[in-house]
Write a structure and sequence with these properties.
Layout: H1 9-25, H2 31-37, H3 44-55, E1 59-61, E2 69-71, H4 76-83, E3 88-91, E4 106-110, E5 123-126, E6 142-147, E7 156-161, E8 164-173, E9 176-180, E10 189-192, E11 199-209, E12 212-215
Parallel strand pairs: 3-5
Antiparallel strand pairs: 1-2, 3-4, 5-6, 6-11, 7-8, 7-11, 8-9, 9-10, 11-12
């Protein structure tokens, strides 16, 4: 008989949260509590992960019981298997005043091999807006980013101005930096580096749409 499938990184995270609640509160969490701990807006995704964990025989679910989650195996038993699964952190939008690439802004970890991209990707960033539309980067696409502070003219970069990150073409001449959109409806960002700081967070090396990776140009 085949052994149960391994948990995904997100499912392993949920297993650990269940174990922590059992240790600290002496009772399993509700779906709503799990969603809150993971920073999710609703519990629909939690339900899907819990059902998958039950199919993999890692938990048992009691129907119509708010805390009807029973742990069948310790998360540590799955660590060795899960650690070999390549994942990348996905950063999402954040509220004003918080750095976009802060560790607490990680929305998820996706099972994507960093070596699919050249140079290899270090993190993922969800696109908001259509300023890079004509470069093939659309709203809600997921960018694969190689972390580096260096860029050449014409490359697409993730640049940080204050607490906000933007994705644009990089053009620099001396202290004058232009961050160029790929959509005529948007204006370039003109930055005098003698007066304003701009930090390059990384180089866009590809993007993902509907689960299909695209190599960067």
């Amino acid at each position: 008989m085949n052994s149960p499938a391994r948990p995904s990184p997100r499912q392993l995270q949920i297993l650990r949260l269940i174990q922590q609640c059992l240790q600290q509160q002496k009772r399993p969490p509700t779906r709503g509590e799990l969603a809150a701990l993971l920073g999710l807006r609703n519990r629909q995704g939690i339900d899907q992960h819990l059902r998958a964990l039950a199919v993999k025989q890692l938990i048992a679910l009691e129907p119509r019981v708010a805390r009807g989650i029973r742990l069948l195996t310790a998360p540590d038993a799955s660590d060795a298997a899960a650690s070999s699964i390549p994942t990348l952190p996905l950063y999402g939008r954040v509220a004003a005043g918080r750095p976009t690439l802060a560790s607490d802004n990680i929305e998820d970890r996706l099972t994507i091999d960093p070596a699919l991209f050249r140079p290899r990707a270090d993190f993922l960033l969800r696109v908001h807006g259509d300023s890079m539309r004509d470069a093939g980067i659309l709203e809600r696409d997921i960018l694969a980013v190689h972390r580096t502070a260096q860029a050449r003219n014409g490359q697409i970069v993730v640049a940080r101005l204050g607490d906000e990150a933007t994705v644009k073409y990089y053009h620099r001449q001396g202290p004058q930096l232009r961050l160029m959109p790929a959509n005529p409806a948007h204006v370039p960002l003109e930055i005098d580096l003698r007066q304003q700081d701009c930090h390059i967070e990384g180089l866009v090396v590809g993007w993902i749409r509907s689960g299909v990776p695209h190599a960067g140009r």
